[in-house]
Specification:
two-stranded antiparallel sheet, elongated, five-stranded mixed beta sheet, Alpha-Beta Plaits, 2 domains, 337 residues
Length: 337
């Protein structure tokens, strides 16, 4: 009788086996993890950019003639890649992990341990890549250089602010998009019971101050070598030359530069011409295009006498915001008064 009882005890029932196979502690996003280190987060981001960059590069080469027609607005195409990728993967749909973060075992979490919703994560990604938005909008104002200067300056200031916040917050490594959405990038290799570190004092103030200085400085520098919109009569000339020389598009700007020499101020007015080519050309062909465009504009533009020179630059390439390829060839032709 006793032997039978011992034999029964040596074979646990199915419920016991299932209970033993369960983790002793349920997996939950509520755990507190330490902040991911600087290099771990940077390498994860670089891995993600490489993963996204390959298909984006292919798209850029395939659609280059069409992308060239968009000008700087082509940077908005980059959101087709970054918003779904970072937005969806950094959310609860993939436990806050892109492929790069998965490889380096880090994750995006809110400070209370929760994951971001897909919408929150998409908005967070938009803030991170906000510079692409401001630079892309400039493509809708090709002949409004002052507007472009302001938009470009805002995008540059945004980059400076985000980078400074990241560098100043050594304990939390939170930058602008993290602070707005109350998130941290954490290291999943170990848990901790310690409370999350706090943001560095005055980090927002310092970053905002430098961002504003950057914006103001960029606008001032741009105005020192000011670019003004040219006469609207160049629009018809642009259409004719674009078709004649098989270009994607032409843009014009009036650039004024002042220099001081021997206590004398000299002013140089240059007509800036940008020709976007649908395909790569040899230097000989670029030189031919530049000289022909300069000659045609000099003949057709009635107000060419107000300029001291014509600068013609042939551009070839694409810019999708986070990945780009650009090649240019430029020549300046002095004009006799």
């Amino acid at each position: 009788m006793s032997k039978t009882n011992q034999r029964q005890k040596s074979h646990p029932d199915n419920n016991t086996i299932q209970a033993a196979s369960q983790p002793s502690e349920p997996i939950s996003p509520k755990f507190t993890y330490p902040t991911a280190g600087f290099w771990r987060r940077m390498f994860a981001f670089l891995i993600d950019l490489v993963i996204l960059g390959i298909p984006a590069e292919v798209l850029g080469w395939v659609l280059m003639p069409w992308i060239n027609k968009l000008g700087n607005a082509s940077q908005l195409i980059g959101f087709i890649f970054v918003l779904p990728y970072f937005g969806m993967m950094n959310s609860s749909l993939r436990n806050g992990q892109t492929l790069g973060k998965t490889l380096l075992n880090i994750s995006v979490r809110r400070n209370n341990g929760d994951f971001l919703s897909p919408l929150q994560s998409v908005l967070r990604t938009f803030v991170l890549f906000g510079y692409m938005f401001f630079n892309g909008i400039t493509g809708f104002f090709p002949n409004a250089p002052r507007v472009n200067n302001v938009l470009f300056a805002i995008g540059l200031g945004l980059i400076v602010g985000l980078v400074l916040l990241y560098l100043i917050n050594k304990e939390t490594r939170q930058t602008g998009h993290d602070l707005i959405f109350d998130t941290r990038v954490v290291d999943l290799r170990k848990k901790t019971k310690e409370k999350p570190a706090k943001m560095a004092k005055y980090a927002w103030i310092i970053a905002l101050a430098f961002a504003l200085i950057t914006v103001g400085g960029q606008i001032v520098v741009a105005n020192l070598s000011s670019s003004q919109p040219v006469n609207s009569s160049l629009s018809a000339i642009s259409e004719n030359l674009t078709q004649e020389y098989n270009l994607s598009r032409l843009t014009f700007a009036d650039r004024t530069v002042q220099t001081n020499s021997n206590n004398e101020t000299q002013t140089t007015n240059t007509l800036m011409v940008r020709a976007y080519a649908p395909e790569k050309m040899s230097n000989e062909k670029n030189d031919e295009i530049c000289s022909k465009l300069a000659a045609e504009i000099q003949q057709q533009y009635a107000e060419i006498g107000q300029y001291d020179a014509i600068n013609v630059t042939v551009y070839y390439g694409f810019n999708l915001g986070f990945v780009s390829f650009n090649s240019n060839y430029g020549m300046t032709y002095p004009l006799s008064k």
